[in-house]
Amino acid sequence: MFQNLTDRLQSVFSKLTGRGKLSEADVDAAMREVRMALLEADVNFKVVKEFVAKVRERAVGADVMQSLTPGQMVVKIVLEELTALMGGNEARLALSGRVPNVIMLVGLQGAGKTTAVAKLANLLRKQGKRPLMVACDVYRPAAIDQLEALGRELDIPVYRGEGTDAVAIAREGVKNAVDRLRDLVIIDTAGRLHVDEEMMDEAAQIKTAVRPEQVLMVVDAMTGQDAVNAASAFAERVDFDGVIISKLDGDARGGAALSIRAVTGKPVLFASVGEKTDNLEVFRPDGMARRILGMGDVVSLIEKAQEAFDETTAADAEERLRAGSFTLDDFLGQLRQLKKMGSIKDIMAMIPGANKLPKDAEIDEHALVRTEAIIQSMTARERVKPSVINGSRRERIAAGAGVTVYDVNQMLKQFAQAQKMVKQMGSQQGKRKRRGMGMPGMPF
Amino acid sequence: MSAWLDRLTQGLSRTREQLSGQLNVLLGRGPDVDEAFWTDLEDALIGADMGVVAVNEMVERLRDAAKRQALPDARAVLEHLAAEIAAELRRPDTEDFIAASPSTVLVVGINGTGKTTTVGKLAKAAADEGRTVLIGSADTFRAAAVEQLHIWADRAGVPIVESERGTDPASVAFDAVKRAALTGTDLLLVDTAGRLHTSRDLMAELSKVKRIVERESAAPVHTLLVMDATTGQNGLTQAREFNSAVGVDAIALTKLDGTAKGGIAVAVVRELGIPILRIGVGEGADDLKPFDPEEFAAALVGLG
């Protein structure tokens, strides 16, 4: 259903090649595509209108009209303006010197507040905070149990008050944090409908009672056009400071996030990108802009790679690679680094152009796990010298890894090919070194 | 004013204007059907999450109809549109498998749409009618999901088959089906963990649950997809993925008590032919209503 904006614009502009110049009618056709792309990504229609007018103004400017690649130019303008609309640079969570700091989470039912409380507590603990989670959702059955279970999992304390007065529980929770020497309180509140006066009052009262440094609204990435209605009501009644966007690990484009920033002026601070408690990331407007347009997110990819990258392992592997002695152990090390970057699908989503692959292209997430298991089932000697692996050894390895002998054969074959390539690379690099210059046109 | 919309406006102050929303602006300013009317209508329908491509087509057809049938004013145009949408939403051959006995219903959907609450409300309604109900809690992933369902089961006074967090959901489903057969249960409701349709593993897990339930259940098995009315254009992809993984028989559209209009559900019905069976209009146990295409369409275009 979705099509990358770049492709769409390319097809609009492809008719123009040779003419060299864009007319206003061409720009209008392009703007229609921009509008469609944004609406399909759930950007609010009012925001889209203003945005398209702004982009149009820039697009009829001289540089686009005379550009040899008007499609690229327009995409560049759209990307810049989208990023600007989302606040340009990363916004930061503003905390104070007070002890304890208080963060309060609000949102509609099912947005993912309770999970977000735990993820945020986990993230801020990594940054040196000592969080206490306070369970103020006294309405949803077992919401408090859910937060407690998450607290146990993360080993982060949870305060659960008595009774059904959420305001009192919040107040006691903050006191409790002082007693327990915690320097950060994160308050989970009940999901509420923005049109429910009584519940909105309660949220405002909790805020007045505990004076949080930050009130964050949790917004589901899959929300449609209604996101701005809800956010505007929360901004008016509770006045939140920033947004956590949840469920961004799905394939929703998340235009709601952009709309909320545009309509309320509140920045998106964090994005939840997975089911696990450490899947909360600092939000980057540029990456989101690319996602909304269906383009790749190279910066996130590089960051992920850097996070997973273990310099010593890599240096060792490179050394042996040069020497042409790349063993199965090195191979295993590389596999593990790749795995640390997340699921292959997530990584694919960040590679520009990867969305052009056929939608149903099978990505076998288990292939890595299988390969790892096979190598782990080998002896140290087998790993260094795979040529000793005979028939009975193959059977033993297959049994150990829970795979078939065929799988083991395949794996060994692939490794032999990789080793061959590595050798060629190594020798080429050697030659280049001796000559003191790169071979023109060669990638390495 | 339709009955459920009426109930809403009673309970929620200050919201009426917002609820009738964008579309009543079209009527409020007079009967003229001019260019501005068409532009605003387009905006309002897009604002209701009907999807830009569908809206373009719809408005195109409507303009044509307005001309050919000489529709006199804005109201007539909106009524025509509502009738058209209602006709699309009406599926005369839809079987209310929730009301049938015996029946096994698998409840699925992404995280946070209100699956557990829907199971609770369905259990309560069936029990109140004097039917025997059993709940199977196959959400073994989310913290405290079983506890949440327990509270609903207590409210409805119906038994529940459960298991510890982290166990195989298919085994809980298996136990539930066995127990339902032994006790001669009229309605077995199997709650499952919320999962994003993009997670291949979790979708495969769900297929397995469905396979087990279908293999073991003597009662007919149906799958109910719970969709949140605030969902945007991604809703269609969700429905498509769940449908291809487990085969969806009907939709329960929840959270219609906010300002979201649930227009994406129209796209799901149109594209996939899956009917809407229930709508959720509030937090109370009796706020899960049978779906009425005329009412829904009228509310969608602002005539409610």
Shape of chain A: flat
First and last CA, distance of chain A: 39 Å
CATH class of chain B, named Alpha Beta
Anisotropy-based shape of chain B: elongated
Tally of extended strands of chain A?
Answer: 8
Tally of alpha and pi helices of chain B: 12
SSE string of chain B, helices as H and strands as E: HHHHHEHEHEHEHEHEHEEH
Helix and strand composition category of chain A: alpha/beta
Count of DSSP-assigned helices of chain A: 20
End-to-end span of chain B in angstroms?
Answer: 5 Å
- Arithmetic mean of pLDDT of chain A: 82
User: How many separate domains make up the residues of chain B?
Assistant: 1
Fraction in helix of chain A:
55-70%
Rg calculated over all Cα atoms of chain B: 21 Å
Would you count the extended β strands of chain B for me? 8
Give the strand order of the largest sheet of chain B, numbering strands 1, 2, ... along the chain: 3-2-4-1-5-6-7-8
Tally of structural domains of chain A: 3
| Largest interface, C-beta within 8 A | A-B, 52 and 55 residues
